[in-house]
Amino acid sequence: MRQEDNARRMQTTRPAEPLTEDLMGELLETEDVQGYLDRHPSTKRTLPEYLKQLLEEKELVRSRVVRESDLNETYGYQIFTGQRNPSRDKVLQLAFGMKLSIRESNRLLQAAGANTLYPKDRRDAIILFCMNKGYSLQQTNAELYRRAEETIC
User: Are 102 and 119 in contact (CB under 8 A)?
Assistant: First the structure.
């Protein structure tokens, strides 16, 4: 019942974000770029803004996310407030700590100005596999280590 309530609340509070693929299709089919730009204003969000949004949507507590992400407490809070610009791996730690989907994780990476997960990259492919299977950060690090890839942390 709680998932249904959350889904209903999210539908009423904010419209779903269009998929990049859908926007690309619309852009390539348009005859008027200005009309497209008017319908879809740039929505580049900052990392702290997106983190705050995710905390609210998923009803998460920042202190628990920092702990689950295996981040130093001070450093984790500085990421949330925008005082620190984290590395790609620190952002991935947050993605695992928040139990984000692949799509949400890639949006988080984009908000941080980092490269999204890329399935043609061996390490990223392992991370994507683990994320898709619901592995924890520790399980993912073990899988990376087992396959002689650099761990996330």
Answer: no
